[in-house]
């Protein structure tokens, strides 16, 4: 291991204690193994998966620390054996399997990315999870084409705001739902061609009225599944990245056959390092230039000191946020 | 129109009469329009879709005759304007949108195929629907790879016997279900690596015991859908071509996400002429050599004179057939 300077072998991190409360505790500082990079964290993104992990419903993969946090930005602090693509002190952001809510976090060296031009080091923490999720699902799995129509459930979420901008940057039409007129307005300002307030309108009808969808990015599932099947055009692709509205949904198989639909989904965390490397490469090659040109930017809802992670989670569960919530150190 | 010789402008065909009975009636002989070929039929394949059409549940596409029959073989009798790829008198087989249960049938010239080496002109009538369906769904949509495992519901059906042979010819492992030990034996003889009698065993458990499936070709749907999701490996593809067991099925969205599954389906009849041309090209280029080498052969369950189409339908609805049922003229 190569390390920038000798320091304490301890660090502070957010731990989930009995009853689900969060505490700022002292733990051992992680040491990068082969192919790993240790990042001194300056900011971390908050994701809904963190809240599931806090509740014990989304445990980290084997071998990963029992610490929340899927994305960070900061400085390369140390590198493990075999890592020659990152220099000590370099400003980076990274996708993590876990461990972002801490002063130091370990990433696979292929999941580390340079900070794109056009954003601050802090803001870069808000890119990895959303950009790689949208790439993996909308671009890789659903193969959205320029001129096609993407429909996103939850356009004002971190994923939603990112999906709107990335899909517009590649030349697609984008329609979204959001839970308030204010959020709908924010989505339109980000480039969405239309935004439907799901509390006051029927998205299936609204979507049909604008010509239906070719690709749907969904985080709701449950009762929305039959409505999505109805709103998809011939050859349409429905991609699930969460199922906040219910794990089970009903499929009309005849409609799937007649319209040649594809119902799919994926998780980011469960992918292996090679798959994540591919996504990080696509982000750096295709999306970072969009960030540099201003076509894609992280939408910062709010910032909290990492010690106040509980407040950040309250903000997310309130559902009032637009874009991403940041933890800072 | 170019025609081989002057004849009556009438022909005999099977018509569905009041109450669903079948009658051998005289109707006008069809005249090929632009891009169409008229075939003097010597044999037609019977498909389950014919029985649905007979019941009024699967009407022919607009502009097509209200006559059953999706595949025939015979001689080119006449060609419409713009057709220069077929000669009068040539032996051919063809995929049809409708109209095969007749002395003369109209096909788009790009859905006409030469008779492959290794089969009789009659037998060639049994290839188009099954070969193109398997290509469209297992090879094109589900992208079955050599070394992967295909699972087919109904291995002894016309589609099933064809899928077994085509998948083995391209180097995949194949497991199937069938409704009797005799049918299971027939599937093994065709090359299946295993066949499960669905009346005496649980296909989900049987399939898991042999390592799960990468691709499932299903004609059942309904309650099988959750079992198929359970039996699919990571990255698995489930393709529906019918839903004889129920149009609606339940999907566990979390399992779809965790295993990155794809649930799809298609119909052959609804495809446009370009899509069918592609399938016919693949059949001629890839599958016809397999027929010539004996790797793929039409499994002939039984032959009936076309006038006795009702008996052929009884044979199909009995569920006792293995392979394809032929109507002859």
Write a structural description.
The structure is a homodimer of 329-residue chains. Chain A is of the alpha/beta class and 329 residues long. The first copy, chain A, folds into two domains: 2-127 and 269-328, Quinone Oxidoreductase, Chain A, domain 1; 130-265, Rossmann fold. The first copy, chain A, has ten helices and 17 strands. In chain A, strands 1, 4, 5, 6, 7, 8, 16 and 17 form an eight-stranded mixed beta sheet that branches. In chain A, helix 4 links the parallel strand 9 and strand 10 (173-178). In chain A, helix 3 crosses helix 4 (158-169) and helix 6 runs parallel beside helix 7. The longest helix of chain A has 20 residues, at 273-292. Chains A and B meet through strand 14, helix 8 and strand 15 of A and strand 14, helix 8 and strand 15 of B. Strand 14 (248-252) of chain A pairs antiparallel with strand 14 (248-252) of chain B. Chains A, B: It comes from Hirschia litorea. Chains A, B: This is NAD(P)H-quinone oxidoreductase. Chains A, B: InterPro entries: ADH-like_C, ADH-like_N, ER, GroES-like_sf, NAD(P)-bd_dom_sf, Quinone_OxRdtase_PIG3. Chains A, B: It holds the Pfam family ADH_zinc_N. Chains A, B: Residues 19-327 form the Enoyl reductase (ER) domain.
């Amino acid at each position: 291991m190569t390390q920038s300077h000798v320091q304490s072998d301890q660090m502070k991190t957010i731990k989930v204690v009995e009853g689900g409360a969060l505490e700022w505790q002292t733990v051992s500082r992680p040491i990068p193994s082969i192919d790993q990079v240790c990042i001194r964290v300056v900011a971390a993104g908050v994701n809904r998966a963190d809240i599931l992990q806090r509740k014990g419903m989304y445990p980290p993969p084997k071998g990963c620390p029992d610490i929340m946090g899927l994305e960070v930005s900061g400085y390369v602090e140390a590198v493990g054996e075999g890592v020659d693509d990152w220099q000590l002190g370099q400003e980076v952001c990274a996708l993590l399997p876990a461990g972002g809510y801490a002063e130091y976090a370990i990433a696979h060296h292929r999941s580390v990315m340079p900070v794109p031009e056009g954003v601050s080091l802090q803001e870069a923490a808000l890119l990895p999870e959303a950009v790689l999720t949208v790439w993996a699902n909308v671009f890789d799995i659903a193969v959205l084409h320029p001129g096609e129509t993407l429909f996103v459930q939850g356009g004002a979420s971190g994923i939603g705001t990112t999906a709107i901008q990335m899909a517009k940057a590649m030349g697609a039409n984008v329609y979204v739902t959001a839970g308030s007129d204010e959020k709908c307005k924010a989505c339109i300002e980000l480039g969405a061609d239309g935004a439907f307030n799901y509390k006051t309108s029927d998205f299936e009808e609204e979507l049909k009225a604008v010509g239906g969808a070719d690709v749907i990015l969904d985080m709701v599932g449950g009762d929305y599944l039959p409505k999505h099947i109805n709103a998809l055009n011939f050859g349409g692709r429905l991609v699930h990245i969460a199922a906040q509205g219910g794990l089970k949904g009903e499929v009309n198989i005849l409609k799937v056959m007649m319209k040649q639909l594809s119902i799919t989904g994926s998780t980011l965390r469960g992918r292996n390092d090679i798959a994540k490397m591919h996504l990080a490469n696509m982000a750096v090659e295709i999306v970072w230039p969009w960030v540099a040109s201003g076509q894609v930017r992280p939408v910062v809802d709010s910032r909290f000191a990492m010690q106040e992670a509980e407040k950040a989670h309250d903000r997310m569960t309130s559902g009032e946020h637009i874009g991403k919530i940041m933890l800072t150190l």
